[in-house]
Design a protein that fits this description.
With 223 residues, the chain is mainly α. The protein is built from 11 helices and no strands. The longest helix is centred in the C-terminal third of the chain and has 27 residues.
Length: 223
């Protein structure tokens, strides 16, 4: 591994450690097992293509006993999507706090988004695909937090434009382009290589800088 790659890995792993896990990730009883079973099914079949009986079968229990742990399939989706959004925001917080350099913040923020979509692939897939199936207060909360997540990108890109670092006419469009691009890794990333998750994160961070018209070469990942 080159010195630059080592520096990138150290920077991104520090972001992971700082972000930690959302406080609502686990709960009493068998919720962690229910969550993992539902994640595998929702990501493969979709929310509507999965029944509580399917989740129970993966867990090796009868469907009625599943209701001792959760009230409904909707509750499962809500808990998954809310905790997933909290995770994204925590990674974003950690990336922004890790440096004061605007261009480097965009690189690391994008890399952090990539890492969430690699290391929490099923959760990320569900979060990206199932918003239309969310209901009630959870829907309002996730929509609000998504807007906050995107607004941070737009504000950062606008600051870069104002400071002459970035050259893009529509920060909002650039934001959507970067987020959609970075989210795609959950579909294709291969844990067996040839690139590590840190290397992919850094490559996508450099692509984000190109999208906003910055020069990735001027940004030092070790800063």
């Amino acid at each position: 591994m080159s010195p630059a790659s080592s520096a990138a890995s150290a920077a991104y792993e520090a972001i992971v450690l700082t972000a930690g896990e959302p406080s609502s990730a686990d709960g009493p009883g068998r919720w962690p097992d229910v969550r993992e079973a539902a994640l595998s099914l929702f990501s493969a079949r979709g929310y509507h293509g999965t029944t509580m009986k399917d989740v129970a079968k993966v867990l090796g229990v009868r469907a009625p006993s599943l209701y001792n742990h959760v009230e409904s399939k909707q509750e499962i989706l809500q808990r998954i999507m809310v905790s997933g959004m909290h995770r994204l925001l925590a990674f974003q917080d950690a990336a922004l706090a890790s440096t004061d350099d605007t261009a480097e913040q965009l690189r690391r923020m994008t890399g952090a988004h990539v890492l969430v979509h690699i290391r929490h692939r099923h959760s990320a897939m569900v979060g990206d695909r199932e918003l239309s199936n969310l209901e009630g207060e959870a829907l309002d909360l996730v929509r609000s937090e998504r807007a906050r997540y995107e607004q941070r990108y737009r504000a950062l890109i606008q600051r870069g434009v104002d400071d002459g670092l970035f050259h893009v006419d529509q920060p909002k469009v650039a934001t959507f382009a970067i987020i959609q691009m970075a989210s795609s890794v959950s579909v294709w990333f291969n844990e067996d290589g040839p690139l590590s998750d840190h290397e992919v994160a850094d490559e996508y961070g450099a692509l984000a800088l190109r999208i906003v018209g910055a020069d990735p070469a001027r940004v030092d990942i070790s800063a």
